[in-house]
Specification:
- The chain is α/β, with parallel strands linked by helices.
- The chain has 3 domains: about 1-170 and about 245-395, Alkaline Phosphatase, subunit A (3-Layer(aba) Sandwich); about 180-245, Helix Hairpins (Orthogonal Bundle); about 410-500, Arylsulfatase, C-terminal domain (2-Layer Sandwich), CATH 3.30.1120.10.
- The protein is about 30% helix and about 15% strand.
- It contains 14 helices and 17 strands.
- It has helices at about 1-5, 60-65, 80-90, 125-130, 180-210, 220-240, 240-245, 265-280, 310-325, 330-335, 360-370, 385-390, 480-500, 510; strands at about 10-15, 35-40, 70, 75, 135-140, 165, 250, 255-260, 285-290, 340, 350-355, 355-360, 400-405, 410-415, 425-430, 455-465, 530.
- The chain has an 11-stranded mixed sheet with strand order 11-3-10-1-2-9-5-6-7-8-17, sandwiched between helices. Strands 13-14-15-16 form a 4-stranded antiparallel sheet, with helices on one face. Strands 4-12 form a two-stranded parallel ribbon.
- α5 (about 180-210) packs antiparallel against α6.
- The longest helix is centred in the middle third of the chain and has 30 residues, at about 180-210.
- The termini are close together.
Amino acid sequence: MSKMRKKMRLLLFLLICQCAIKNVSSHSASNPNIILLVADDLGIGDLGCYGNRTLRTPNIDRLAEEGVTLTQHIAASPLCTPSRAAFLTGRYPIRSGMAAYSRVGVFLFAASSGGLPFEEITFAKLLKQRGYSTALIGKWHLGMNCESSNDFCHHPLSHGFDYFYGLSVTNLRDCKPGQGSVFLKGTEKSIVTSIQIIGITLVSLAAVHFAGFFKVPFQALGCCLLITAVLLVVLLFFFYNFRYLNCFLMRNHQIIQQPLSYENLTQRLTKEAVQFIQRNTDAPFLLVLSYLHVHTALHASKNFTGKSKHGLYGDAVEEMDWSVGGKSTNWEGGIRVPGLLLWPGVIQAGTYIGEPTSNMDIFPTVIKLAGAQLPYDRIIDGHDLMPLLQGTIIRSKHEFLFHYCNAHLNAVRWHPGNSESIWKVFFFTPNFNPEDSNGCYDSHVCFCYGSFITRHDPPLLFDLSRDPEEKVPLTPETESRFYEILHVILQAVDNHTKSLHAVPDQLSWDNLLWKPWLQPCCSSLFQSCYCDYESEENLPEVHFG
């Protein structure tokens, strides 16, 4: 790969939602090749370059040594689907309808009808128009079909990518045998309750009928029994075949492995990434390598299993690091993530930037580097990072960052231009308590309204510059500017809210539900959707140099 390296003008990002190949020659800023590495659920304290001393991440640490480390890098959402929408479009997810008003904030099924709207402009679309070859390898999680099982209206190839190899949804626990079920964990109570209500209703109708209080037509009872039986059969079929229906690997529009095998999956993704680069050494390219690590279900290949000091999670982090060679809340542990950028000769090595940045900033940064024009017909919430990275400015353009819990404004971050303080207020916090049935501990996901949250009046206030772990909320007694700070933030909220416009809710219950006619299958739906064209012996050999 040394010959390939010499031809590259490459900008490399490691971002967290959420194959290290360096440029050693040209430093031109014109049409650089761009690799974006995205990892799920990787905490800012999990990497050696951010202070971890027990997980081994030497390749990622080398990126930090040779590039820029962002210490206040923020995901636009603590959940996969909305964060990825923001990453690709440079916009808060609520602007594109990718922030849920319902309980569920992500797509759970491959046969849902919601997804990233075609009207949204991704950086892949704009770079493709500029002559870039574009690829997404790994996790998508932004929808698949709209009206049929092969219209691919939300597919990566409909959003500017020339090539796709990966998963359409995500690697839920249900996808790996023996890892339990996120889906059943969150819904089994409501399903059981519904079945009980239906059963009690039918028994009551039968009792009333035979007691002679009034006559219930047996046709009606039979119809109710038939409908109930059909619903139970459908539910049982769906739950029994969840892994086959939702956990599959695609190449472009074709399913090549259903259900997905986790064996050597990271290595397969890495091979695909290297092969894409090898195919595009003489033309500009954009590669998004979107890891499944370290989202549950956790997985690691045989060579990494049992090697770390932190169990399977540590094994998964270390395997992701090999390839480079708190989730669901707006607390810092859920949204403050690693951000590393490498461009030898253009970005000064070994630099640390403590200004607030966002994964929405990747959109305008990449667009401007490729010589494309930013869309003029919509609000772009991200800002070009290059002036900050090259030191031509020293303050982030993000004076305010708005943190949503699904579609509900949860918290706001304010970095005043004349101060080193980074203020953060919470209007409500999800109930996270193992003993609270209305909390988010037991169901893995924090809901954002009603009895699932605690509202704060006045809001909780923290100064992250002094209290990055958000341990001690400030009060009017401990912070003399308490109400002044709240006033400024509330005015910013008002201005931000006025900039929002109603759009179709892509994560409505109707768009989230499983629709059998949208189910992608590489064989008949009633043959459990099984195929495997991705066996190890058919994989082309790739050498890493």
